[in-house]
Design goal:
CATH class of one domain in chain A: Alpha Beta
Keywords (chain E): ATP-binding, Nucleotide-binding, Transport
GO molecular function (chain E): ATP binding; ATP hydrolysis activity
Oligomer: heteropentamer
Shape of chain B: globular
Number of helices of chain B: 15
Structural class of chain B: mainly alpha
CATH architecture of one domain in chain A: 3-Layer(aba) Sandwich
Shape of chain A: globular
CATH architecture of one domain in chain B: Orthogonal Bundle
Largest sheet of chain B: none
CATH topology of one domain in chain A: Rossmann fold
Helix content of chain A: 25-40%
Protein name (chain E): ABC transporter ATP-binding protein
Structural class of chain A: alpha/beta
Chains: A alpha/beta (about 270), B mainly alpha (about 350), C alpha+beta (about 500), D mainly alpha (about 290), E alpha/beta (about 325)
Order of helices and strands of chain B: HHHHHHHHHHHHHHH
CATH topology of one domain in chain B: MetI-like fold
Bound molecules: adenosine-5'-triphosphate, magnesium ion
Distance between the termini of chain A: 30 Å
Number of strands of chain B: 0
Strand content of chain B: under 5%
Largest sheet of chain A: 6 strands, mixed
Helix content of chain B: over 70%
Radius of gyration of chain A: 18 Å
CATH superfamily of one domain in chain B: MetI-like
Number of strands of chain A: 10
InterPro entries (chain E): AAA+_ATPase, ABC_transp_ATP-bind, ABC_transporter-like_ATP-bd, ABC_transporter-like_CS, Oligopep_ABC_C, P-loop_NTPase
Number of helices of chain A: 11
GO biological process, one term (chain E): transmembrane transport
Chain lengths: ~270, ~350, ~500, ~290, ~325
């Protein structure tokens, strides 16, 4: 059922990563398309986060990556840091798992929202500030003007994650990598974030790589789903197919372990 | 409206004041445990033989009262700014301290300044160049720094730099014969600067260099180590990764995102290190004939000069208080979570 | 980068602002002559106060006039008459009067400060505007030798009284006298700090013939080891306290003045059986006396030092000749120890830990004595203590064995009568009056003799008896090594005030 | 925090790696060498450390490799015998500090309330005072002797352990296995003994290793000031002090100083590596201690 | 609603628990909650993070003192745990904690830790190995240290230790939330089975409603320190009464591959130190009425003004 219509905004081919001589990714292949949410599932430690970090060249100290990460016709793995910095934040942005730790606790929201905007887009302080307020409004932070002056710890977890998403969107990137953006949040709050992500993808034509281990979340927002195990993608396909008729036994076992059998409807 | 920071500071001040009282109590108790009679130490040989004079002297110094009362008298004096009279110098302890404390503060201040600049610098470099050669070298050097016996290093430095190489000037704070600058702060370097006495300034800096560096070696090592681990810890934080993910240049990430939080533990350590510098001065001042509070303390402690020892205790307590406050205020400046919330 | 501020600015012979830097290990409590007793204080007071009589150079055998033009001792030795010099003035220009003299001397005596004993029992009176009489109840032939002591410097009584000086222990002038001097000496105090440095400046109006040479004299508190470095580098011009070892390696372009000092190191063995059953045993004392390796101690004290044959130092009248000094005799010591009846004795030897006398610490001496006595079979436990604590025990007569030194208060043998039983130092060794009639009698006799020859004989006798049965073992007289820059002239060691700053000049 | 731990924590498994680090190896070798020297001093030392029969102040050369001191004693032999004074005393001192500070800190942490408050305020008091000055006053008050110097340093050293232990105990006290134990009917004491203390010893021992150096520096510093070892004991700090008087004879002060330096350095190398290996997070607890 | 004649095994009435931190306002983490658990019954306690579930559980164990209200276990009032041994009458309440990495003492063999449980029950017949077997682990594992186990296995050991004390009431404070998805359901089922089998009550705390639905007989929904709704699981699931329960259930994404976005509940859990007036849920409630802003609905089983019981029947 896979539609080969659009070209991939980002494609990962044969990505291998080793940390301290320890192989954690053994050749990951992924293609992410504009305007679609690509879900990446898999158990803890399967290498989901490392895949996302490898794209931005943010692997931990002592790592080595090989393979190819194609973006805009270039291989990100080969790119010198200076040029990679032009891509990071501007073309490819990332949202991390825990909003409590991914925002700098000692800098105002404004600072964190505008710094890279001014750097990448070359806009002035005033304009950056206006755009920032607009972004906060877009992610539905009440009182955006006033919120700019506050510090992260003055917001709740859900709001912080919205701010983190606003930070990621600030330079209008083409690709957004969201590493378990809702895991640290309550279900009621999670629903809001998922809706936001889906909306951004649909409205802005963003290509989203959504990393999660929650198949429910996957089912709710992803268009494509990939399943990872032990540093390899074992299955990729459209959401409906992977979740309803998994081909790989591992995917099936994941689904079987769920407390509520798939297919059974909620009230 | 009292801000949380103000409330926090008030609490710290109160605690520190209580601590100071505690310190005076400890010094009082300790000095009274010392075997040996201050009377013998302070009266002339012949006068000691005359019971009337001894009794008179004891009464004058309140030594005939019960200990708790003596302590209360001491505290009462403190409230009136009276630290008593040194039994050794026969001068008000306050005057003695007014001379020796600035000397030590100048020494320790110079040392902490050097340590902060070098220690933090080295620490950052080591962290950024983690596991490379420069990191290893800096780590070993910082360990050496905290392992060198200060008193020995002072001797070696004095011998080598003053005597053999003849590049540092001799004992004291300025060249003998040079008139000290008009006293404003008591720190010769600052006072010389204020009064435009360039010759004095260069002499004072020259005299300060060797002892301050000797004193600083330990704290440089200490701060290098803590800065390194603090920076490494911050480098591992999500928000740094997030900042890098934003495509900010390394320099910006380092100075805006990494250093600030890394400085929080470093400030704590620097505050504590200042305390250890004050300790170190006891050993260094003797070798460099630096007329500071370390020598004064040593002399007072060994001569059972009770008012002087208690004066030193008090000064040290106040310095501790001030340093703690500075550290707390710096916390507030650095970390909005302390300031706002 | 920091070498610029070095020592170059303090050349002694520079035309303007001649500055002399003297390094010494401070033993300093006060600059108030009425209270001063410590060596550094005496240096300061010698330069800032004039006394009635003084000594010429280092010759202590003959007091010479100073503020007093002449003096005369009555034949019974009880009355000293002094004629005051006219025209002497204090630093503020006012004349030195007989009233100033009476006030100053009475103040010393009655304030009960450390030096008050110098004038114990002496009545001070003014006969007329230029005559002073000092009367004692007992013959006091030492008085002319006492008067040069800087502690007996003459104060400007008006200034002193304005600043709280009185004639009793309630005197409050010390604080003032520590910040400024009120004397007629060639220098005045510019600044004074008991622990770091004293700065003297020339008294431009000095009345005497010999004007102060230096505009400014800085006396700094410097450890003896550092003194050596300083003087070698030219950072200072005079180093007062170098030990024999330190002087041995001294190099190029410096003058070294070596003399035996008047300090006598001695060991005391407590005679109070309440303090120690062991040391109060006369045979044990003999064993110790014979067990000590005197040349070995001399070696530690270095060049310029000599063995002390008696308690009176070699340069004073009545000193014992060197051939009468004690000698080591290990066998004899062992025999004496066996005779004493104490087996395997262990005794504590106390000494001041941080005190140095002319750069010589007590510790190596004590360690060597410990090693010497070990050979004899006596275990010595060393208990160093800070001076204050150690002094306390010493003065209270609580030490089993004590290692101390005696510096003369005035250059007269009578000063050493304190070592007799029941006297000041005698008591410190638990030697009470009546403990040794023989020595006591010899002491009394020595104190009462007047003519020089008789005195010499009497003091020799006193010391021989003291050495034979007393609890004291004179050890050494360390050298006094004064090292100066080549340019400094007029360096003389003086047993009372170490060095006369005003006597120093430059080539 | 739903999934707090990303990685398992293999404390025990990581330990052997420590030995692969060169610093640890150097530290161990040097420390062991010193311990051997201390134990075998009578066999190794070329001379009697107390005999005063050699030429005085002889420079290093054949016969006496490190020269002789003022009294004509062989410095090498004295340094070797000095290891028998300094090292065991330092170890004893650290052990005492661990026991006293650790127990007080554990009580303060576990029982909290006024017990803890009192102990910690006392610790603060000591902390507020520069260590050397306080130790100096204590040593002066008690009288100069090595035993008293140890006591004096103990007075200033225990609060560091009390603080760290308290911090660790406070952390462990809320750990769930401790609560489980209490729920199963452990008394507070048993809980402290069985569940809490064994889980704080690791970091404390690391701190102790790091502290050996500091303790030795402090002890020898006191001896240097004349408040520690009594002559003729060949204590290193006292030996350095003796060298002050004879500055020109640089060897008298230099070698004992180097002895102190190497021992302190060895234990610091060891402690540093141990700390890295055992738990990077204790770094935070250890930072409480400066000097 | 029926109640066992003997009275419930655990009854919590109007419980208030406060956290006091110097320099901060008092946090009323549990603000008048009521809850009952009968013997052999499994009650699931759900609610958003920070609503006071753990605090309530700790209070029930005596790990936290109550500011007011009552906690009875088997008719016995729960007293806060001091320095002394826990009242033996209360060792019938045991707890399994959230973090499998800190729920076992890393320095002791698991066998010894299970033996502590046996000792608490005075059980001399059973051995630690027996209990390991019951939780599905090999008997030989008794000699191992905790670091040799995976998270799920540790949690089993923790359950074994709790069971060894023969509890009449077992409390699980999010015992599965730190486990891998594959282990979660297994461990939850195991806990339920063992509790029911031994006749003990089980209070199972979780924020994962799908798991709770799977094992709980009854469900209690907590919001900001209060239990806002209780009822048999199936009933609550099928027909949630409280608007909050409804929102909670609607927010669960289902892994059916249908691509249905879950419903969002605006706003966040308010600060328990400064709760809203009236009904605690009213600022977020889609069905808010005037009365909600003023008066707190102090009744059950659904504490909502929409479900105010007839005034006739006091219970
Ligand atoms: N800093 C690191 N050093 C060494 N190994 C690491 C590091 N970070 C991750 N790993 C290893 O890399 C592998 C993949 O980890 P990764 O974080 O990508 O997993 P994940 O799928 O994101 O898991 P989770 O669902 O727990 O976030 C794991 O085996 C992990 O142990
Ligand atoms: N020791 C404490 N001191 C102060 N406040 C506390 C303390 N423990 C919990 N709280 C506060 O009490 C409230 C309830 O906390 P509790 O841990 O009971 O919630 P919970 O429902 O268990 O949440 P979670 O699902 O996150 O575990 C929270 O607001 C929390 O911040
Ligand atoms: Mg991950
Ligand atoms: Mg909880």
């Amino acid at each position: 059922m896979r539609t080969e219509s659009r070209p991939a905004a980002l494609s990962i081919e044969g990505l291998r990563v080793s940390i301290g001589g320890h192989d954690v990714l053994h050749g990951v292949d992924l293609a992410i398309e504009a305007g679609r949410v690509h879900g990446l599932a898999g158990e803890s430690g399967s290498g989901k986060t490392m895949t996302g970090l490898a794209v931005l060249g943010l692997l931990p100290h002592g790592s080595r990556a090989s393979g190819r990460i194609a973006f805009g016709g270039r291989d990100l793995l080969e790119m010198p840091v200076r040029e990679l910095n032009e891509v990071r934040g501007a073309k490819i942005a990332m949202v991390f798992q825990d909003p409590a730790t991914s925002l700098h606790p000692m800098l105002t929201v404004e600072r964190q929202l505008t710094e890279h905007m001014r750097h990448h887009l070359g806009v002035g302080r005033k304009e950056a500030r206006e755009r920032a307020a607009g972004l906060l409004a877009k992610v539905r932070i009440p009182g955006p003007e006033e919120a700019l002056r506050r510090y992260p710890h003055q917001f709740s977890g859900g709001m912080r994650q919205r701010i983190a998403i606003a930070v990621a969107l600030a330079c209008e990137p083409e690709v957004l990598i969201a590493d378990e953006p809702t895991t640290a949040l309550d279900v009621t709050v999670q629903a809001g974030i998922l809706r936001l992500l889906r909306g951004l993808c649909d409205d802005l034509g963003l290509a989203v790589l959504l990393v999660t281990h929650d198949l429910g979340v996957m089912s709710a927002v992803a268009d494509e789903v990939s399943v990872m195990k032990d540093g390899l993608v074992v299955e990729t396909g459209p959401r409906g197919q992977v979740l309803r008729e998994p081909r790989h036994p591992y995917t099936r076992s994941l689904l079987d372990a769920l407390p509520v059998p798939p297919g059974e409807n909620s009230p | 409206m009292r801000s949380p920071l103000a409330r926090f500071l008030v609490r710290r001040i109160v605690t520190a004041l209580l601590l100071t009282v505690g310190i005076t109590l400890i010094t009082f108790v300790l000095t009274n445990l010392v075997p040996g009679d201050p009377v013998a130490a302070n009266l002339g040989q012949r006068a000691v033989g005359d019971p009337a004079i001894v009794a008179q002297w004891r009464a004058d110094h309140g030594l005939d009262r019960p200990l708790p009362q003596q302590y209360l008298m001491h505290l009462e004096g403190l409230l009136h700014g009276d630290l008593g009279t040194s039994q050794q110098s026969h001068r008000p302890v306050l005057d003695d301290l007014a001379e020796s404390v600035p000397a030590t503060l100048e020494l320790a201040g110079a040392a902490i300044l050097v340590s902060l600049v070098l220690g933090v610098g080295f620490g950052v470099v080591a962290a950024l160049r983690r596991d490379r050669l420069s990191d290893h070298v800096l780590r070993v050097l910082s360990l050496v720094g905290i392992s060198v016996p200060t008193f020995w290093l002072a001797l070696v430095a004095f011998y080598v730099f003053f005597f053999r190489l003849q590049i540092t000037p001799g004992s004291g704070r300025i060249d003998p014969g040079m008139t000290p600058p008009p006293q404003v702060t008591g720190l010769y370097t600052v006072d010389a600067l204020l009064s435009g006495r360039w010759d004095v300034l260069s002499s004072a800096v020259g005299h300060l260099a060797a002892p301050a560096l000797v004193l600083a070696l330990y704290t440089i090592g200490l701060l290098t180590r803590f800065t390194r681990s603090a920076v490494l810890e911050v480098l591992g934080q999500d928000y740094v990764r997030a900042a890098r993910a934003k495509g900010l240049p390394g320099r910006v990430v380092l100075f805006r995102y990494v250093l600030r939080p890394a400085l929080v533990p470093v400030i704590t350590v620097a505050g504590l290190a200042f305390g250890s510098l004050l300790s170190g001065t006891v050993l260094v001042e003797a070798v460099f004939a630096w007329p500071g509070v370390g020598q004064y303390a040593y002399k007072s402690a060994t001569t059972l000069d009770l008012p002087a020892v208690m004066g030193v205790g008090l000064v040290v307590g106040v310095v501790y208080l001030v340093i703690n406050l500075v550290v707390d205020v710096l916390y507030g400046v650095i970390d909005p979570r302390v300031r706002v919330s | 980068a920091c070498s610029g501020g070095g020592s170059s600015s303090s050349t002694p012979s520079g035309a303007a602002g001649k500055t002399l830097v003297i390094d010494t290990s401070f033993d300093l409590k006060t600059a108030d002559p009425g209270r001063t007793y410590e060596p550094t204080g005496l240096i300061v007071d010698k330069a800032t106060y004039d006394t009635l009589l003084t000594f010429e150079g280092s010759d202590v055998t003959k007091p010479v006039p100073s503020l007093a033009e002449s003096y005369e001792l009555s034949s019974d030795g009880k009355k000293l008459t002094l004629k005051l010099r006219q025209g002497a003035t204090f630093a503020d220009g006012s004349p030195v009067t007989a009233d100033d003299v009476v006030f100053s001397l009475t103040r010393v005596r009655d304030m009960k400060g450390t030096p008050s004993f110098l004038l114990d029992g002496v009545e001070i009176a003014k006969t007329d505007e230029s005559t002073i009489t000092l009367t004692s109840k007992t013959p006091n032939p030492a008085l002319p030798y006492i008067l040069p002591n800087p502690a007996l410097g003459i104060l400007n009584s008006k200034v002193a009284k304005e600043n709280g000086a009185t004639n009793d222990p309630n005197d409050k002038a010390e604080q003032y006298l520590n910040s400024a001097s009120a004397g007629s000496g060639p220098y005045t105090i510019e600044s004074f700090n008991v622990s770091s440095q004293v700065v003297l400046k020339a008294n431009a109006q000095y009345w005497g013939a010999k004007k102060p040479y230096y505009d400014k004299v800085v006396i700094r508190n410097v450890e003896s080891a550092t003194q050596k470095l300083n003087v070698q580098r030219g950072d200072s011009q005079v180093a007062l306290n170098l030990s024999g070892d330190q002087v041995a390696g001294i190099s190029g372009g410096l003058q070294v003045k070596r003399t035996a000092s008047a300090y006598v190191f001695f060991l005391l063995a407590n005679q109070d059986s309440g303090v120690s059953k062991v040391t109060s045993n006369p045979k044990f004392v003999e064993a110790v006396r014979k067990g000590i390796d005197y040349p070995g101690l001399l070696e530690l004290a270095g060049e310029g030092s000599t063995q002390a044959s008696g308690i009176i130092p070699s340069m004073f009248l009545g000193a014992l000749p060197p051939d009468q000094a004690a000698k080591r005799d290990v066998e004899g010591a062992k025999a004496a120890l066996a005779e004493s009846g104490v087996s395997d004795p262990t005794v504590k030897l106390e000494f001041p830990s941080e005190l140095t006398v002319n750069g010589l610490s007590f510790q190596p001496l004590a360690e060597r004595i410990q090693a010497n006595l070990k050979e004899v079979g006596i275990t010595v436990e060393l208990t160093p203590a800070p001076v204050t604590t150690a002094l306390d025990n010493y003065r209270n007569g609580k030490e089993e064995l004590g290692l101390w030194y005696w510096g003369p208060d005035f250059p007269d043998p009578s000063n050493y009568l304190s070592f007799a039983p029941g006297k000041l130092v005698g008591l410190r060794s638990g030697w009470k009056a009546g403990a040794d009639k023989d020595v006591e009698a010899a002491a009394d006799k020595a104190g009462a003799t007047v003519t020089d020859d008789d005195r010499k004989q009497a003091y020799t006798d006193f010391q021989q008896k003291l050495n034979a049965t007393g609890p004291f073992m004179p050890l050494i007289q360390p050298g006094q090594n004064i090292v100066t820059a080549a340019s400094v002239t007029g360096v003389e060691y003086h047993p009372v005030w170490t060095i006369d700053v005003a006597g120093l000049g430059a080539k | 925090m739903k999934r707090a731990r990303l990685f398992g924590r293999g404390r025990v498994r990581r330990l052997p790696q420590a030995w692969r680090r060169p610093l640890a190896v150097v530290g161990t070798v040097v420390a062991l060498a010193w311990i051997v020297v201390a134990l075998a001093a009578p066999l190794l030392a070329p001379h009697d450390p107390l005999a005063q029969e050699l030429p005085r102040l002889a420079p290093p050369g054949p016969g006496h490799w490190l020269g002789t001191d003022q009294l004509g004693r062989d410095i090498l032999s004295r340094i070797m015998y000095g290891a028998r004074v300094s090292i065991p005393l330092t170890l004893l001192l650290v052990a005492l500090s661990v026991v006293v500070g650790g127990l007080l800190g554990a009580c303060a942490g576990y029982f909290g309330r006024w017990v803890g408050e009192t102990i910690m305020r006392l610790a603060d008091l000591v902390f507020a005072f520069p260590t050397v000055i306080l130790a100096m006053v204590v040593a002066a008050a008690l009288g100069a002797s090595l035993g008293n110097a140890v006591l004096a340093v103990l007075v200033v050293a225990w609060p560091a352990y009390a603080r760290v232990t308290r911090g660790l105990v406070l952390g462990v006290r809320e750990r769930e296995f401790v609560l489980s134990g209490r729920l199963l009917g452990f008394s507070a004491w048993r809980s402290l003994r069985v569940d809490v203390l064994p889980n704080v010893t690791g970091p404390i021992l690391v701190l102790a290793t790091l502290d050996i150096g500091t303790a030795l520096l402090l002890l020898s510093g006191l001896s240097f000031l004349g408040l520690g070892a009594k002559p003729p004991s060949p204590e290193w700090g006292a030996m350095v002090a003796a060298g002050v008087d004879v500055f020109d004879s640089w060897w008298v002060a230099t070698f004992p100083g180097l002895a102190i330096l190497t021992v302190v350095l060895a234990f610091n190398f060891l402690g540093d590596t141990l700390r890295d290996a055992l738990d990077p997070r204790t770094a935070g607890a250890i930072k409480e201690r400066a000097l | 609603m029926t109640m066992p004649l003997t009275g419930p095994l655990l009854s919590v009435e109007d419980l208030v628990v406060e956290h006091r931190t110097p320099g901060r306002p008092v946090v009323r983490a549990v603000a008048g909650a009521s809850l009952h658990v009968a013997a052999g019954e499994v009650v699931g306690l759900v609610g958003e993070s920070g609503c006071g579930k753990s605090t309530l559980a700790r209070a029930v164990c005596g790990l936290h003192g109550a500011a007011s209200g009552r906690i009875l276990v088997g008719g016995h009032p729960v007293t806060p745990l001091g320095l002394r041994r826990r009242d033996p009458a209360l060792t019938g309440v045991q707890m399994v904690f959230q973090d499998p990495y800190s729920s076992l003492n890393p320095r002791r063999r698991v066998g010894a830790q299970i033996a502590d449980g046996l000792r608490a029950a005075g059980d001399t017949a059973a051995s630690p190995a027996d209990l390991l077997e019951r939780v599905g682990l090999p008997r030989a594992f008794a000699g191992r240290y905790p670091h040799e186990f995976s998270g799920g296995q540790r949690q089993r050991v923790a359950i074994a230790r709790a069971l060894a004390a023969r509890p009449s009431l077992l409390i699980g404070d999010e015992p599965i939330s730190a486990l891998d998805a594959s282990a979660q359901a297994q461990v939850a089922r195991l806990m339920r089975d063992l509790a029911v089998e031994s006749g003990a009550g089980l209070l199972f705390i979780s924020h994962d409603l799908s798991v709770v639905r799977l094992i709980a007989d009854r469900i209690a929904v907590m919001y900001l320190g209060k239990v806002v709704e209780t009822g048999p699981t199936a009933e609550v699931w099928a027909d949630p009464g409280h608007p909050y329960t409804r929102a909670l259930l609607a927010a669960i994404p289902s892994p059916d591959g249908a691509g249905v976005l879950p419903a969002e509940l605006p706003g966040d859990v308010p600060d328990p130190a400064d709760p809203p007036s009236g009904c605690r849920f009213h600022p977020r409630c889609p069905l808010v009425m005037d009365v909600c802003r003023e008066k707190e609905p102090g009744f059950g089983p659904v504490a909502c003004w929409l479900h105010e019981p007839e005034p006739s029947s006091p219970s």
